[in-house]
Amino acid sequence: MFHFYAMLSRMKYICRWGLMRNTRKETLSEHSFETAVIAHALAVLRNTRFGGHVSPERAALLALYHDATEILTGDLPTPVKYFNPQIRSAYREVETVAQNKLLSLLPEDLKPSYESVFTAGKEGDKELLPLVKAADKLSAVIKCMEEKGMGNSEFIKAEASLRQAVSDLHLPEADCFVTEFLPSYALTLDEQD
């Protein structure tokens, strides 16, 4: 009996934004799905508008699993995770242990397929990782926008900081997403019609 997929299903129990007052909780499962959708979109934009030749499917896959280790580690708040280089280094080690634990829950013949997802080791992944990082941050911006839209001012500074972080990536695909698609997230269903 192998527990890998059952363990992944526990993403729905891991809540994000632990240090922030939330009007609606966001699970790791929700965040991973949204990040995958956005990473796919950014890769499509790169290929369609900016002369790229990347795999949107691979971008989505990497994004889908980008925080899977948090099933075991929990969602360490960003201010803690990046407090200093020693904590960041120690957290990377914890993530590696968690990756290995997740991989140990698979049969041997399936492990290679998932190792490359967790380590982003395939050729071409280097070009995709900035897109996944941007998608991760854009998903967080969307959460901040949703919270602000529900009257929660707790997320105002986080949104500004995350928007700046996306801009600092200097990715035309991310800039395009911010300009053309992000504003829709602040609209009601009727306004999106």
Short description:
This protein has 193 residues and is mainly α. Helix content is 62%, strand content 0%.
Element layout with pairings:
Blueprint: H1 4-8, H2 28-49, H3 56-64, H4 70-73, H5 78-81, H6 85-103, H7 111-119, H8 125-149, H9 156-168, H10 172-180
Helix pairs in contact: 2-3, 2-8, 2-10, 3-8, 8-9
Domain HD/PDEase: 24-150
Protein name: 5'-deoxynucleotidase
GO molecular function: 5'-deoxynucleotidase activity
Structure report:
GO terms for molecular function: 5'-deoxynucleotidase activity. Its EC number is 3.1.3.89. This is 5'-deoxynucleotidase. Residues 24-150 form the HD/PDEase domain. The chain is mostly helical and 193 residues long. The chain is 62% helix and 0% strand. It has helices at residues 4-8, 28-49, 56-64, 70-73, 78-81, 85-103, 111-119, 125-149, 156-168, 172-180. Helix 2 (28-49) packs antiparallel against helix 3. The longest helix has 25 residues, at 125-149.
